[in-house]
């Protein structure tokens, strides 16, 4: 049973409401897909929003604060430079300065909020949380799942959320754009400094309201980008992989990320519900 207190803010106030923005997913969007119980998409967004907000503060709080401080310093420097102007110019721009300051403050507040933005997909059992820098979806979701899977953490924070899928970046649904996306997302994991290593990898494709390409065509193209005509000594292994390439196809958008082997071996394919059930069974045995 979900602990109601766990859904409240630390100061005991009522839980926040996270609005779902309508629209398609644009190219280069990063974020997290989440599957959830049918007809409970809004409640799932509330649960996930609270979990994500806490995790963002834990992982990136300092970076967000430093970004705000940098903005304030830049604004102050701008004001100082303006003060060197003539008295007449200073008076004429006084109102404009005040408006700029208010605008800057509002933008700073909005930037903090927009680190996480839920997008309404108009699709049953699926929600999407768009993220922006400094959040790195692969690391962000892995750290969150690691915490939820901790045997010492028996508090169930969610009721409707099921599987989480990070999206490092995305593109429009064309083969040319898919190739470019694969180059961006796969390079840090399989090429460059990691190109000399030998990784066993697999590709997992999920398609929703998507019929632009067949699943096998996508897999073939991604595998080709990993190996690059034998330039890299990686091999496909569907059962015992070191790396798994996740591809989410939704309407006119293709998203991609890379996760490690613990995705299936230790973390139930990032299924929050199954992770908790496994902990409960283990706890009951003890």
TrEMBL record:
The keyword RNA-binding belongs to this UniProt entry's keyword annotation: yes
SMART domains: THUMP (SM00981)
Gene Ontology terms describing biological process: tRNA modification
InterPro entries hit by this protein: THUMP_dom, THUMPD1-like
UniProt xrefs under CDD domains: THUMP_THUMPD1_like (cd11717)
Keywords: Coiled coil, RNA-binding
Compositionally biased intervals (Basic and acidic residues): 67-82
GO MF term set: RNA binding
UniProt keyword annotation of NADP present: no
Superkingdom to which the source organism belongs: Eukaryota
Organism whose genome encodes this protein: Zygotorulaspora mrakii
Pfam families reported for this sequence: THUMP
Ranges where the record places region Disordered: 1-22, 63-82
Sections of the chain in a coiled coil: 88-115
Sequence ranges assigned to domain THUMP in this UniProt record: 149-260
Name assigned to this protein: THUMP domain-containing protein
